[in-house]
Amino acid sequence: MSNTATLATLSGSDLAADPNWWRQASVYQIYPRSFSDSNGDGLGDLKGITAKVPYLKELGIDAVWLSPFYPSALADGGYDVDDYRDVDPKLGTLEDFDEMSAALHAAGIKLIADIVPNHSSNRHAWFQEALASPRGSDARERYIFRDGKGEHGEIPPSDWESVFGGPAWERITEPDGTPGQWYMHIFAKEQPDLNWSNREIRDDFLKTLRFWSDRGVDGFRVDVAHALTKDLTEPLLSKVELSEANSGTDGFDDGSHPFWDRDEVHEIYVEWREVFNEYNPPRTAVAEAWVHASRRGRYASPQGLGQAFNFDLLQADFAADEFHEIITRNLAEATESGASSTWVFSNHDVVRHATRYGLPTGGGKHAKGQDGKGWLLAGAPAEELDVELGLRRARAATQLMLALPGSAYLYQGEELGLQEVADIPDSERQDPTFFRNKGVEIGRDGCRVPLPWAAEGTSFGFGDGGAHLLQPAWFSRYAVAAEDGVEGSTLEFYRRALKLRRELQTSEELDWLESGNAHVLHFSRPGGWQTVTNFGAEPVELPAGTVLLSSGPLEKNLLPGSTTVWLR
Q1: pTM strictly above 0.85
Q2: What is the mean pLDDT of residues 8-21?
Q3: Is 141 a catalytic residue?
């Protein structure tokens, strides 16, 4: 293993000074309300995160991505923001934020903050002012208000549906008590869309970017980055017309959709980039943009946000040919845009990949493919889920991801091998998608259940009280305390894999090698190290003369659903 000494490794201080630290960073997403509760109120908070910084450091990540921590009524898990420049009192204070930021940076961990620019909450001071103001007022111009159709304006301006189900327009009551205008909300009615053609909106968000950057935020994850600008020129297309013309992912592939992926959205991000470049090192950003693959690179432009999520592997079956095509294509796109690619298997919006990979390919009896939603909607029949297979595949996929050029995004709890929590009672669910689309969507609560830190207790060590979402009894087997220091545990596997990623980090290149097996992917990276993944159902023999760097004993054969990293 002496070859590893010749490979470049960035120390914590070097990483802090490197303007390109993000290009191959390992980023750990924290959903604050479900990470760690410091005061026993059942809700995770900023002090809870600060207390777990030693855990994060030992895990070996480069950065934390913090999901929304702003004041919010939680109509959409914190993505309904009351105030963009404050902390939710239930989670702490600005002083707590500063303390957390300082602790992370002292541990050599960068901080990425979620920002939600498409919509505010309906409790935001601006929206409350709009409700109290007349038609045509400056206050209403901050949002998207329209008169309704019909004799008395009782019909919404269009028949568009929101992402969360139901109409995308909500009627208000005017200050004089009469039925009034309608406002647009692509998501929940508690999330009115902001009017980004209004200069005041643009200027205020520049102020917000500086506010958090000045407090030590190193980068931003931009929620629904492809939806800010809109063309609502009459006549508005019907939902049937939109559906028939839609040839992209959540939008047209030519920038002409009324509210998804319009070309002019990039004018906003050019201004944001100017703000990012005021800092040394420049602040980073990554776009959540569900757009046609041919248009993703525009969000990742160095003149714009700099990086964009690709969710292609997240949506793929566990199959060698799919992984090969996706990896090859995305690396080419990243090279063309000048960005680095991003890789992700789990986050706060999807069924955990340890569960998805344990389901029959194609979703078994259920629609929606291998995203797991059909299985959940069918009552999560236990006989269709192979827990052991799912975890083995999830670990293999993660180790493959950590060997790829580009940045890797991990979601809290996946390092414990957590499964999706499938048996949350309807009365305990919180996600608006469940309530607005009952029978069609199960909601995202199953991946947001608070983490188990201890193998026992009222909330498995999450806090001294209970947890805001019910934790199942089987969480005890996946608790940090149950896996810490245990050879072969998923936690130790992640620690080892992340350590290897840092030790073997090199230039952003990859060469595919012939494996001789259609179910095996084999590639090399500069520096003499290689990665091989077995997607098949049978063991495969490893090449002779290899030195395995994976945890566990030296094996001649690579087992099904596993990945190894080695040096020739």
Answers
A1: yes
A2: 59
A3: no
